[in-house]
Amino acid sequence: MAGFAGVPAQGNPTFNYWKTSIANYIKEKDIQNPILVGHSIGGVLAMAIAGDYPELLDRVVVVDGLPCLQVLYNPAFTSEKDPDFSEIVMQMTEISDEQFYQMQKANIPRMVADTTKREKIIAWTMASDRTVFSNMYCDFANTDIREKFSYIKCPVLVMLSSGMVNFKSSIEDQYKYLKTADLQYAEKGLHFIMYDHKQWYLNKLTNFITGQ
Predict the structure, then answer these.
(1) What would the pLDDT profile of 49-74 be if each residue is shown by its tens digit?
(2) 3-class SS of residue 39
(3) 102, 131, 163, 194: which sits with the fewest CB atoms below 10 Å from its CB?
């Protein structure tokens, strides 16, 4: 995606911009029966595309993503229309690279248990455009796509990290209107399930894609 992991930034870094861009790419390339696999924000983007373009996708795989992350901590949360994130973005973009690196280094143990993958993930973040990164971070924090669920027609596999079982009631409440969803909780690992519980992840992914 433009602006992330060393790819030059372009366009308007918002959730809706990414959603429309991906959908347009699929249509322009005439990709038939695509399966979208998205991790975290990417998984929510995939579901948003499935809701806005019900005939476009064949299947969707969500890897540790929630339709409204804030509801997990604040059940009364409602997204704002046209919020001003400029102060937060300024704070994130004005700190030095070293300060930003230390922030990511402090956070990464909560994201991935596999210590051999931590520096790689941090490197992706450090190579991202800081303005794009911070804008997307803020925009996603204000995102709630639950209202799109009634429009989604394709099957959706949701793979959740092991710790999410502690929020099972809230998570299942968020997904209750997505009738095509299959929620699966990993037996171990953190947010980067594809690293921390690789074989489980690959088995679930393969079986879902092949319709088993």
Answers:
(1) 999 999 999 999 999 999 999 999 99
(2) strand
(3) 102
